[in-house]
Amino acid sequence: MKDLKHLYYFEKLLEDADNELVREAIADGKKCIGSTCYQIPEVLLDLEGSFSVRLRAPRTGSMEMGTYYLTSFLCEYTRALLERAIEGGFQFLDCVITPDGCSMLNRCVENMELLKTVDKDDFFYKYLEVPMKSDENGLNLYIGQCREKILAPLHEKYGIDVSDEALRRSVERHNELCRIITELGNFRKEDNPRITGYEFHIICLCTFIAPKELLLDKLKETLEEVKNRVPDERFPYRARVAVVGSEIDDVDLIKLIEDSGAYVCADRFCYGSLPGREEIILNDTEDVLTQICRYYMESCMCPRHMDTPKMNRRREYVDEIAKEYKADGIIYEQMKFCDPWAYERMVGGSVMREEYGYPVLTVDRPYAIGNSGQMRTRVQAFVESIEIKKIQGGNR
Known about the structure:
It is built from 14 helices and eight strands. It has helices at about 5-15, 20-25, 65-70, 75-85, 105-115, 135-160, 165-185, 195-210, 215-225, 250-260, 290-300, 310-325, 340-355, 375-390, and strands at about 30-35, 50-55, 95-100, 125-130, 240-245, 260-270, 330-335, 360-365.
């Protein structure tokens, strides 16, 4: 297929956390809010006068200092973030807001704070307690935490408008972007898709790490380009896979999977679009913050939620997207030493294989995969196993 006009531009944006669009928004007087998880609602950060960025550490090399403070038994994502913070790589931020999604992430951000890695007078850190169960008690906790630790400090310290009207406008802007990303993602359902999983991952990831309104023009242009794109005459991959699991902001991982013969048709991972880039539908009768918090709580597919209905729902959701996006198999991935996803990978992989009948590959991986020969070999073998099942007449 013909290369996308703006793909190189999107790839360049991902090379630095402090990218050119972040600098442009800051120069325009906007406050940059760092976050680390889906459970910090983006729409509460992307208000008029502020914008959110998900923290990441592109081009990570040594993690010696991060490991010194966090030990080698914590996930590499947290160690890479702390390493980058110690290096001074997050000086562009005006605050960091993080959930107690896991103890590792808490320790990472706490060390950033203790080491004073950002030297600004009005800089602040906030730690949210977020629900472990998706019920009314959990929702009440979530609403209170978001009001007290997101909206209140943004208003008091930076004068950000946090009224219901401002929240509704933020949701409207969020939905405009989500409609574009969803439409781009829908092309992955085609028998012969006109967008690769790698291209979609690059585009979607950019919407998490840069001011969204500054991306809209190029996203709209890319959508029109893909609509009119002529796909390859023959499907160039040997199998279609849904990738499920923990945080992926490494552009090399999806590329490695696709170079190994597996088309990544669905992205159910942190920094992916399922969920994360879907519209939030508000009604006119209920408090706006309540609606926003309920949406994020109910749509969240993080294994931090430990009630049985939520655990079952995670596997049902994987089955739904696998069918919708026509996946032949599922790759469950987990960052090394990520405790919540280690459990989910083990149980989820087993359930999807034994109860739902999917071929499943489960892997743990480093933060930056590079050109891992071992991972490539495992994916290639998985693709071959899917092909053999097809030849033998298996359903999947």
